Amino acid sequence: MSAENDATPIIINGKKSSQKIRDWVKIEIIKLRESYNFIPGLAVILVGEDPASKIYVNNKEKQSLEVGMNSWKYRLPAESSEKKIIDQIHKLNSDDLVDGILVQLPLPEKSSASERLIISEINPDKDVDGLHIINAGKLVSGENGLFPATPSGCLHLLREYFSDLSGKKALVIGRSNLVGKPIANMLLNQNCTVTMAHSKTKNLINECRQADIIVAAIGIPEFIKSDWLKKESIIIDVGINRIENSNSSKSHLVGDVDYQGAIKICKAITPVPGGVGPMTIASLLLNTLKAACVRRNLEPPIFDFTS
Ligand code: NAD
User: Fold this and answer.
1) Per-residue pLDDT at 139
2) What is the C-alpha separation between 8 and 260, in angstroms, rounded?
3) Phi, psi of 221 (to 5 degrees)
4) Which residue ranges make up each domain of the chain?
5) Mean pLDDT, to the nearest integer, of 15-22?
6) What are the pLDDT digits (tens) for 204-217?
7) How much distance in Å is there from the Cα of 1 to the middle of ligand 1?
8) Angle (CA) 101 129 185, round 5°
9) Closest by CA position to 228, among listed 206, 249, 196, 200
10) Potential cystine with 282: which of 18, 121, 215, 289 (Cβ 3.0-4.6 Å)?
11) In this structure, which topology does domain 37-123 adopt according to CATH?
12) Residue 1 pLDDT > 70, yes or no?
């Protein structure tokens, strides 16, 4: 059983951090417009009518416009062929006004298109979701590139609250291309000693008990129990799980970690909602700003996490 923490835990505030990033991006866009007469632009392709995907895409559009970016949304029917989606990508690849291209995933279940193939057709310099194999390779090699937004958001939070991660034992639970693998590589690039766990990991509890940092990206509500945690550990909870309330028709969100138990043990934790979630679009805007500068051979401005 883990001992309780000595001090009040830090509740890592993703809403506040993401607002800081968006305010900064807005100022940088004004500077770019005034100095170089262009505005970065993000194009999002939505295939099908999935309600959650529509909300995500609308939020991306809204926040892009709020920071002064150009924003374009392309809606294709769920039954669109792979060729039709790829044709749209090719048009955006050759459109000079477009700096970032994102295909909202997952594609609808009835779609016959391959997500892997679709992503591979995006120009890697405009791949602001960081899922193209070239950008994935750059991340693994420790080179500069465009990296996935949610893990970038996790890293922003860790670096803002705990500037030096060097030498910390980090456990990443989940090995998706979207979250687990990229955050593991990002933490490795920050000189953490990284362990990756997944559904086939034996004795996960033991791994958790040794970790200074845990990034949970599993998708199972409150899967990580508080008595698995090391005292004073840092918990980044990526999970977003919707739970139906038993006594009403409403629902609420929980993460992959037992939050109420964990706050008695850990040094810091991201709440769900309000932790990692808001950081995803903020990181996407940072990526689009970066892509816009790199494409024009301009030095991209760097956001200072410590400010
Ligand atoms: P995924 O389904 O692709 O991957 C889940 C991973 O969890 C797998 O690698 C699997 O090996 C691992 N896993 C499953 N059962 C396990 C077990 N019993 N023990 C250990 N590992 C286990 O999911 P994903 O896309 O990586 O997303 C993970 C969670 O993060 C989901 O809840 C998702 O909604 C959330 N998410 C949040 C954001 C955000 O903006 N905050 C973005 C993306 C994903």
Assistant:
1) 98
2) 13
3) -55, 130
4) 37-123, 148-278
5) 98
6) 999 999 999 999 99
7) 26
8) 155
9) 206
10) 18
11) Rossmann fold (3.40.50)
12) no
